[in-house]
Amino acid sequence: MSLCQLSCIGSYQVSSNEQATEVDNLFVQSLAKGLKVLEAFSSLQDSISLTELVAATGMTKSGVQRLTHTLEQTGYIRKDALSKRYSLTPRVLELGYFFLRTNPLVAKVTPTLVAARERLGLAMHVSVLEDDDLLYLFRLPSRELKVVEMLPGRRTSAFSTSSGRVLLSAYPDDKVRDILKRKPVPAMTPQTVTDPDELMALVAECRSQGYSISQDQLITGQIGVAGPIFNAARKMVAAVNIVARTSDWPLARVEAELLPQLLALVQELSTY
């Protein structure tokens, strides 16, 4: 899990820093700016220049220079001597490790999902909503061991995944529609549903039936089925989804074989 994604879990929204300083005397704006610099590394590039950091953060060049120097000195980023570009260091992984090691939800789901993955040979994911996006909290790869399946901390549009639609179904319609207005859904594949009315209908369907199935939304040839995890107060806290290839698991087979196993899994995990 990257630091930029970890720092968002259960924390403040950087875009509202100025508002926060007006009402909260304990808010440390310099720390927030430092975290904003780290969050700029969320792009797919392996390094980023000072100019790119200035553009990404909206801060002054001198301010970014001071923050990058501090982060370099504390070991969280490094600067290449030749290219002058910055990259994250392995030290940021420690923070993700501390979170995952102590998180009670991760501890609860791990043995159950490991057993299910061994039985089915399919990828298993646990996700939460963070800033109204889907954030992968825990991931077990399929037996084919695709690297993209192994990395927790990935953030993506909640509307384009079965897990995201499950999590959004806990919200009232007006909030779901507000998210769609603020965050239009990108077309990741030719089949990705982007029409707001269609997406609202898909979330409503999930709310009614208690699960979601999505196909070819993020990756062509991939199908996922997801259900909710509830805590003792019956509040939805996460979603579990199982991902398979449509060539092996067409929709009819998923509904007949995979869906019952998914529903049994989330029922077991909802004692959390």
Automatic annotation (TrEMBL):
Q: What are the IclR-ED domain coordinates in residue numbering? A: 91-272
* InterPro entries per UniProt: GAF-like_dom_sf, HTH_MetabolicPath_Reg, Tscrpt_reg_IclR_C, Tscrpt_reg_IclR_N, WH-like_DNA-bd_sf, WH_DNA-bd_sf
Q: Which residues form the HTH iclR-type domain?
A: 28-90
The record ties this protein, via PROSITE patterns, to: HTH_ICLR (PS51077), ICLR_ED (PS51078)
Name the domain of life. Answer: Bacteria
Question: Does the record's keyword annotation contain Transcription?
Answer: yes
Identify the keywords attached in UniProt to this record, alphabetized. DNA-binding, Transcription, Transcription regulation
Q: This chain belongs to which protein, by name?
A: IclR family transcriptional regulator
